[in-house]
Amino acid sequence: MARKNTKILILEAAKKAFSEKGYDAVSIDEIAQLAGVQKSLIYYYFPSKEALFEEVWIKSIEELENELFGVEESDSSYVARIKNFLKRYIDFLTSKKAISDLLRREKTKVIDQENWKNAREKYESFLGKIQSLIVEGKKKKIINEEVDPKAATDMIASVDSLPRKGLLKSVENMLIKILLKDNT
Fold this sequence. Notes:
Blueprint: H1 2-21, H2 28-35, H3 39-45, H4 49-69, H5 78-95, H6 97-112, H7 117-139, H8 149-157, H9 165-179
Helix pairs in contact: 1-2, 1-4, 1-6, 4-5, 4-7, 5-9, 7-8
């Protein structure tokens, strides 16, 4: 049990450090200090800083996906589902500061880095789920015909770069108006 707790402690410290300073500005020494462990213990669990970052990123995206897609809403209408999705996304970004900051700070790097293949694939899978939700709405003729699913996905995924909760709520309302034919 102690091993699992130590690994989680390291991952939490790394998430905090990477979200506050970014990958390039954080050292393994700093993460060890934040976690209250020896540097060698980090290398016991993670062969490199890159591997540690990739696991932090993947776990962060999994937490986001669980929040957004883990709730079964088969009984609700598509309009209710898309509205709930956008609300949960904005609420997640405003309540999970470390993950929100990590996404904002490192998203471009994850997409561009060849050595973070698993992290990139996890993020692309997340984007694919959003795009599928938009495509479903278009098929049901609830999403405006002019809406390009990829562009809408990119727009939704980029709201993590907005700094204030009030602005995020305004963007949530704007997205609903843009996406849905009937804004009810």
